[in-house]
């Protein structure tokens, strides 16, 4: 099995993907089981909630974003939890921040400059590649990625062209993601699949596999499933 998956990540041959089948009833049953799992309580719950905060991309993606509200967002990112709560948990000196600040490319410089002035090393992420619809030419997507990196983004969150999935153009999807990854340079890349627009669970699986295959490394690629449900 491991040799099979290693081959997939090394080879762009995608003929196997047409044979993928997803057992939807089994998936639904497993999802129902997950909902019944017991949650942690007490100190353990508080600890994991704090951990969750450090994984958050604090985000503003509004048409009316301005330098001032991006600045406020960055200050919130540096101090995401009230000081009195941190003291009650004896965590006030642990330097808890969110994982990243996420904005549109045009606001990346605002976020980078604000965090730098605040003496904070929180990375700035930028959506790109025609977010949220992905309905822009590939050349425009790549230019947007390069500009976001030039402005200081350390992570690029791309969206895929859902039409490539819905029409079964798997080689085209692979190439699009591969080129986006190359345009990111040293910046990390996250692939947003918009699973609610992919039509079926089989398509979600196929798009997920191709996103991992087309990334720089299957061990470094970060992938997000964005639901529009």
Automatic annotation (TrEMBL):
Top EC group: lyase
Record-level GO BP terms: carbohydrate catabolic process; deoxyribonucleotide catabolic process; deoxyribose phosphate catabolic process
Protein EC: 4.1.2.4
The organism's place on the tree of life at top rank: Eukaryota
Pathway: Carbohydrate degradation; 2-deoxy-D-ribose 1-phosphate degradation; D-glyceraldehyde 3-phosphate and acetaldehyde from 2-deoxy-alpha-D-ribose 1-phosphate: step 2/2
Catalytic activity: 2-deoxy-D-ribose 5-phosphate = D-glyceraldehyde 3-phosphate + acetaldehyde
UniProt keyword terms in alphabetical order: Lyase, Schiff base
A GO CC term assigned to this protein in UniProt: cytoplasm
InterPro entries on file: Aldolase_TIM, DeoC, DeoC/FbaB/LacD_aldolase
One MF annotation (Gene Ontology) recorded for this entry: deoxyribose-phosphate aldolase activity
Protein family according to the UniProt entry: Belongs to the DeoC/FbaB aldolase family. DeoC type 2 subfamily.
Name of the protein: deoxyribose-phosphate aldolase
């Amino acid at each position: 099995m491991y040799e099979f998956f290693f081959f997939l990540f090394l080879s762009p041959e995608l003929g196997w993907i047409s044979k993928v089948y997803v057992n939807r009833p089994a998936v639904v049953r497993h999802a129902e089981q997950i909902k019944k799992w017991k949650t942690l309580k007490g100190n353990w719950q508080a600890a994991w909630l704090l951990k969750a905060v450090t994984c958050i991309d604090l985000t503003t993606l509004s048409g009316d974003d301005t330098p001032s509200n991006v600045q406020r967002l960055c200050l919130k990112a540096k101090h995401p939890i009230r000081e009195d709560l941190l003291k009650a948990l004896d965590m006030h000196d642990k330097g808890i921040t969110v994982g990243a600040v996420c904005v549109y490319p045009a606001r990346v410089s605002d976020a980078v400059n604000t965090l730098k002035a605040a003496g904070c090393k929180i990375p700035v992420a930028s959506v790109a590649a025609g977010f949220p619809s992905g309905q822009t030419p590939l050349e425009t997507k790549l230019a947007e990625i390069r500009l976001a990196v030039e402005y200081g983004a350390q992570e690029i969150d791309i969206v895929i062209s859902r039409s490539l999935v819905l029409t079964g153009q798997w080689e085209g999807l692979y190439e699009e993601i591969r080129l986006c990854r190359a345009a990111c340079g040293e910046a990390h890349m996250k692939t947003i699949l918009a699973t609610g627009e992919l039509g079926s669970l089989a398509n979600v699986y196929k798009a997920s596999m191709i996103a991992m295959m087309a990334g720089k490394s299957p061990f470094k690629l970060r992938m997000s499933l964005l639901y529009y449900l």
